[in-house]
Amino acid sequence: MPMARTLDGAGQEPAMVELGWREWVALPALGIARLRAKVDTGARSSALHVDAQWRFSEGGAPWVGFRITPARGGDEVEARAPILDEREVADSGGRRTRRIFLSTRLRLGSVEREIEINLTDRRNMLFPMLLGRTAIAGAFTVDPARSSLHGKPPRHLPGPAA
Prior knowledge:
The chain is mainly β. It has a domain at about 15-50 and about 85-140: Cathepsin D, subunit A, domain 1, CATH 2.40.70. The chain has one helix and twelve strands. It has one helix at about 135; strands at about 15-20, 20-25, 30-40, 45-50, 50-60, 60-70, 75-80, 85-90, 95-110, 110-120, 130, 140. Strand 5 (about 50-60) and strand 6 (about 60-70) form a beta hairpin. The chain is globular and about 45 Å long.
């Protein structure tokens, strides 16, 4: 089944935004202003490194809390979100693990969209986030010869309007 496309205000399909093999992203709903991400069209799902995670219940629904240090030597961020799902995920070595998935906003360049991410330990990886093909489908194209086409987002998320 073809993927549904949203038309812009003029009734045209919006242009696809080009990405390099690595980009800076923000996850504003989680309080993460900027994070290095590897764009990986070979990975179906997106993965976010967490230093620690814990489960709890809110209003009878399952939630996850977690801590992440988005940049080396940077401030630790503590976030929480409802658990969307739990699924088996195979890593690049073929090892399968059960991971928590959540839904959150991704901001990358001029695009902001809802994506699914799973939480995992990526401490031995160069990038704390892996941006998989389901997160980029329909909005982005990838040029593997280029990188960081959209620059770094600001260090801090904008505060509430005064």
